[in-house]
Amino acid sequence: MPELPEVETLCRQLNTLLPGQQILAIEILDPRLGTAAGLAGRTIEAVSRQGKYIKIGAGATTPGCKPGREKRRRTEAGGPLNLLLHLRMTGRLFWQRDEAPLPPYTRMIFSFSGGRLLLIDPRRFATFSPGTAEAAPAPLANPLEEFPARRLREIAGDRRLPVKAFLMDQRFIAGIGNIYACEILHKAGIDPRRPAGSLKLAEWRKVEKSAGVVLPRAVACRGTSISDWRDLFGMSGTNQDHLEVYGREGEPCSHCGAPIERMKMSGRGTWFCPSCQE
DNA sequence: TATAATGTTAGACT
DNA sequence: AAGTCTAACATTAT
Q1: Looking at CB atoms within 10 Å, which of A148, A152, A164, A214 has the fewest?
Q2: Does nucleic acid strand C have an atom less than 7 angstroms from the CB of A74?
């Protein structure tokens, strides 16, 4: 469900609520998510996004730790932690101000003094790992800020991997998923089956430019709500109004009028215009 | 009832 | 070696 724009939306919203708040309790309702030992009592510092991961920085457990001892504490149990959360396909975060009934599929509850944060996840693919680790770094770590054509060409090298699979490969580029890969390539006029290494610099520039429109607009729209995506406050995003190919098989291409086609590529639905994506 | 779903990974195969 | 495909994870919606 969530790709970069959806995760970015959640992080921005979490940052308006959580920093400075102490975790009063954590309840894990789905044992696949692991254990919450040693998390209660910590204070949230900042929330950030790494690709599709949400990183919640949680301070050391012991209040009143003397300044000179900070360095040691960092390496001890009880030192600062990153709570790394990945929502995978159907994970959602939902902020509840009061103790209203839990929505179906609630898998984890973080309680704060002003409300509680719920992880809702029907398919139970979401992962939660508190620790000192960071998400695996990618050469293009944040396409929202930095997505230059030259770097894309360098990283693509002479790979024969289809350009769509390349854009979605988290080892190269962090955050792009199926919807936005389809949309970026359509706007750039590039066939998703093209080997990544076959794109010329001018074509990578089109990809850069398209991503520069598609991704920030999706963030501004608070994501794409085609089925169940909702933001932290339960609101739908509006980016579905801007989709030009994803899920639009048979509808006319916004650019040339030819009917949009759907095919399967590396196991994923792939929508494109057979006439103007070359 | 069969299929597909906004993600990732492992393993088998080419 | 690099890329493709399938299955797996668990569940819902059409």
Answers
A1: A148
A2: no
Distance between CA atoms of residues A264 and A268, nearest Å: 5
Residue A252 known to be catalytic: no
* Interatomic distance A25 CA / B13 C1' (Å): 48
Q: How far is the CA of A65 from the C1' of B9 (A)?
A: 41
Q: What is the pLDDT of residue A228?
A: 81
Give the bases of strand B that a protein CB approaches within 7 Å.
4-9
Annotation says A2 is catalytic: yes
- Whether A261 sits among the annotated catalytic residues: the reply is no
pLDDT at site A76: 56
C-alpha–C-alpha distance, residues A186 and A182, integer Å: 6
Is A268 tagged catalytic?
yes
Residue A173's DSSP bridge partners are A140
Calpha distance A134→A71 (Å, rounded): 19
First to last CA, chain A: 28
Q: Which domains occur in chain A, in start order? A: 4-131 (3.20.190.10), 149-272 (1.10.8.50)
pLDDT score at A267: 85
Parts of chain A with a pLDDT under 50: 65-70, 72-73, 75
Query: Tell me, in Å, how far CA of A247 is from C1' of B3?
Result: 15
pLDDT per residue as tens digits for the range A85-118: 999 999 999 999 988 999 999 999 999 999 999 9
Angle at A48 between CA A116 and CA A38, to 5 degrees: 55
